[in-house]
Amino acid sequence: MIYKEKFKIGLKDVWAKDEVSNIAILEYLEDVAAYHSDSVGIGINTTEETHLNWLLLDWELEVLKRPRYGQVLDIHTWSRGIEKFYAFRDFEIYDEENNLCAIATSKWLLVDSKTGKIARVKPKIADTYQSETEKAVFKEEKIKKIKEPNEYVREVTYTTRRRDIDVIGHMHNLNYLYLAYEALPEEEYSKRPFNHVRIQYKNQIKLGETVKCKYVKENGENVVVIKSEDDKTLHAIIKLN
Length: 241
Known about the structure:
The chain has a 10-stranded antiparallel β-sheet with strand order 1-3-4-5-2-7-10-9-8-6. By secondary structure, it is an alpha+beta fold. Helices cover 17% and strands 37% of the residues.
């Protein structure tokens, strides 16, 4: 089952040259994924009944043609497969001329909202998504794990605020990308928008926690690692290029 929604690019969604930002793109994708889950009864509006939430584990985004302010985008999403506790979801973004502008893939974990523990995806739930198992946007269907670098050249700290927290009580997944941008040196930040974004989430960040955002450039890629203040907890790894 392919689910579709249209989004118009607003003023808050663009950066230089009136082009849509990566954060805005990921926001659209997050929304359309949520709407799809709502439509099959496993979404935010049914949490009180199902006691289930989808927790995002991975993003990979590739921008092929960057749309501009005012354009209407047609976004397609579908479940690419569900395995035990995990779901894999792909996306395509088309402009008004039906040009393919971006592709993305993601990995999600089903969690019991009452206990906070991992929940198995029952066959009845999996069946409602009608997975498109033969339709993948990237050649490699599995998202590769990112290894943490051995050393860094720059570090910034950040303490989470109320505005960072989402509906399930931890830092919203898009805010990790904001932190990554803050960690970039100015000469790298000025090169945005980056057409390839990879985010691997490891451990949630809660209100009031202070984190370290560590930066290094490896093999032509900007790598930002977000860790706890004591360096013991890895929260996320972000790659931009």
